[in-house]
């Protein structure tokens, strides 16, 4: 893990240092930034594998940093926030965050989530250490998922997905016609228990549709089976 760099962005030095201690103990390289502009500069100059990003910061806040990252990168982003309201979590996820933790958090849970996101990131980057190649291409109605290359295209045009978006789309596409509930999608992709009133899957499905559907409001690829879940049209 020595070549995997994690950027911790938080203006609270005590929290940033705590996160750093736990990540270093797992063998990761850690870089820290206490402001949004500093974070953007570090991301531009270094090969960052994952960003742990605080929402509430003076000046350029975490959501602005996230928006900038998502302009041209699919680097996994784990958001941290003192706010616990669902609306704040949904906003971060809609803007492209891969995961969300509310302060105060258990450092061991944060490390577990970091490991999960890095596994997905490595799967999307076959040249990275530890990446695994698959052996086929899934093709459905113009949608193609090249598993060996971990790439997605629609009608020959490349689609940039975050690691979490890729995992959800791959799960559905590998099982055409099968309906997956939000609970099953969440537990398979995030590998943790689903909790009631969790809108995380819905938000990610919406983002995926915006990237692969001609008309996201009337999707033809990812279909909603009302009261049950989601499926890829077979």
Could you walk me through the main structural features you see in this protein, from its secondary elements to its overall organization?
- It is a single chain.
- By secondary structure, the chain is an alpha/beta fold.
- The protein folds into 2 domains: 5-123, Rossmann fold, CATH 3.40.50; 137-232, Winged helix-like DNA-binding domain superfamily/Winged helix DNA-binding domain (Arc Repressor Mutant, subunit A), CATH 1.10.10.10.
- 38% of the residues lie in helices and 20% in strands.
- The chain is built from 8 helices and 11 strands.
- The chain has helices at residues 13-25, 36-45, 62-69, 86-94, 107-123, 163-173, 182-189, 200-212, and strands at residues 5-9, 29-33, 50-54, 77-81, 99-102, 137-140, 143-146, 151-154, 157-159, 222-225, 229-232.
- The strands form 3 sheets. Strands 2-1-3-4-5 form a 5-stranded parallel beta sheet, sandwiched between helices. Strands 6-7-8-9 form a 4-stranded antiparallel beta sheet, with helices on one face. It has a two-stranded antiparallel sheet with strand order 10-11.
- Helix 4 (86-94) links the parallel strand 4 (77-81) and strand 5.
- Helix 4 packs parallel to helix 8 and helix 5 crosses helix 6 (163-173).
- 35% of the residues are buried.
- The model is unreliable at 128-135 (pLDDT under 50).
CATH class of the largest domain: Alpha Beta
CATH architecture annotation name of the largest domain: 3-Layer(aba) Sandwich
**Class based on secondary structure composition and strand pairing:** alpha/beta
Low-confidence stretches: 128-135
Strand order, largest beta sheet: 2-1-3-4-5
Q: What would the average pLDDT be, to the nearest integer?
A: 87
Number of strands: 11
Distance between the termini: 40 Å
Q: Please outline the major beta sheet.
A: 5 strands, parallel
Tally of helical runs: 8
Strand content: 15-25%
Order of helices and strands: EHEHEHEHEHEEEEHHHEE
The shape is: globular
**CATH fold label of the largest domain:** Rossmann fold
Number of domains: 2
According to CATH, the homologous superfamily of the largest domain is Response regulator
Rg value: 18 Å
Q: Helix proportion of residues, in percent?
A: 25-40%
